[in-house]
Give the backbone structure.
Amino acid sequence: MRVKVDVTETELEGDYKSIDGITVTCTKCGREVEIYGTEEASIKRGCAQLREECGERNFYYYHEEESPRVDPVHTVILAILEWMRSRGYSSPVNPTIGALLEAIEEQARNKQ
Ligand SMILES: [Zn+2]
């Protein structure tokens, strides 16, 4: 079955100082595991550890759905282009910049 986990940030004891980490909690049985790091990979490690420690063949997940990663830079560029269009700048004064923006926009759309 699919089991959702809860993730809370915590401070874990390191060798010399405390280290940022997370507590990953199984919402089915309440078991908790502590993981160093707060990145996406840390959550994945927590899920893998729960899968072992809960002793059931569950699939642990945190995010409802893995949303496709949208590059923030591309998002900003698309927003700028949108803004320019809404104000009638669809053909920028400088054609080189216009062509450049078009090229970037095409790249950005391909990435999404
Ligand atoms: Zn469990």
Q: What stands out?
A: The chain has a mean pLDDT of 83. The chain has two domains: 2-61, 72-111. The radius of gyration is 22 Å. The first strand starts at residue 2 and ends at 13.
